[in-house]
Design brief:
Elements (H helix, E strand, L loop, with lengths): L16 H20 L12 H8 L3 H13 L3 E4 L3 E4 L10 H9 L4 H25 L2 H17 L4 H17 L3 H4 L2 H15 L10 H12 L3 H20 L3
Antiparallel strand pairs: 1-2
Helix pairs in contact: 1-3, 1-4, 2-3, 4-9, 5-7, 5-10, 5-11, 6-7, 6-10, 7-9, 9-11, 10-11
């Protein structure tokens, strides 16, 4: 396991709840990155509580809480006498925004990135089609504001990427489909991390704001056919841009 950048100082006994959450969240992050990037492989056993807590000078409680976080995301399982083992990749919750973020802290595979775009292509055109029929004026106002912020800041900035996430989130909300809306955080994370990924070595090959504006206008005109087509084009072009970085 990589050495953590920030040492916690004395043992974590007596720390308040916020500090404890920060510590075990940091441990879960570091272990999660090590798992999804292959430092710990499926079947490997993580360090035991005593070994880990002494190595990084944290409490055993903080380590156990971190393991619970990873277990909830399907990355590890703990059993009596055998310790905590990394699970097979098929059990990982790849739709979890944290797991997505951890994947992109390393070098995600071509197959994984293409899989994200396949997921988006399955979900987002249908969501745009529904949004064109069901959106309210407030939904359209949120999309319009996000679009303005994207244009003002640009996707090379954190503020621009946040606006991009809000734009896609507003479309899923406007679908008025509760099961579909539960995927909003996953889609938003996929949009954000692939945008960061495709400009890691070079500037963005083009400004995608115009593609978003076409989609916005189709939803504003309550045209489901045009909205679906615009979203298909948006996702396809985003994938083509990302392919240049692979």
């Amino acid at each position: 396991m990589r050495q953590r950048k920030e040492q916690t100082g004395p043992r974590t006994t007596g720390l308040n709840t916020t500090s404890m959450k920060r510590i075990h969240g940091s441990i879960a992050h570091d272990l999660g990155v090590d798992i999804v990037t292959g430092i710990y492989k499926p079947g490997d056993t993580l360090p035991g509580e005593i070994e880990f807590s002494e190595q990084l000078d944290v409490s055993r409680t903080a380590y156990r809480e971190a393991v619970r976080i990873l277990s909830a995301k399907g990355l590890v399982e703990s059993r009596p006498r055998t310790g905590t083992r990394v699970t097979e990749k098929e059990r990982w919750n790849l739709l979890d925004p944290d797991v997505l973020a951890w994947m992109f802290e390393g070098e995600p595979s071509v197959e994984f990135i293409r899989g994200l775009f396949e997921l988006r292509m399955i979900i987002e055109p249908s969501a745009a089609e529904l949004a064109a029929v069901r959106r309210s004026g407030a939904d359209l106002a949120r999309m319009g504001h996000a679009l303005e912020e994207m244009a003002r800041h640009g996707l090379a900035t954190e503020a621009g990427r946040e606006a991009d996430q809000l734009f896609h989130h507003a479309i899923l909300e406007a679908s008025r489909n509760a099961p579909l809306m539960t995927l909003s955080s996953t889609i938003s994370a996929a949009v954000s991390w692939t945008t960061i990924f495709k400009q890691r070595k070079r500037k963005l090959p083009r400004d995608p704001v115009a593609d978003h504006r076409v989609l916005y206008e189709a939803i504003g005109n309550s045209d489901p056919v045009a909205a679906r087509a615009a979203m298909v084009d948006l996702v396809r072009l985003a994938q083509e841009d990302t392919e240049l970085s692979l």
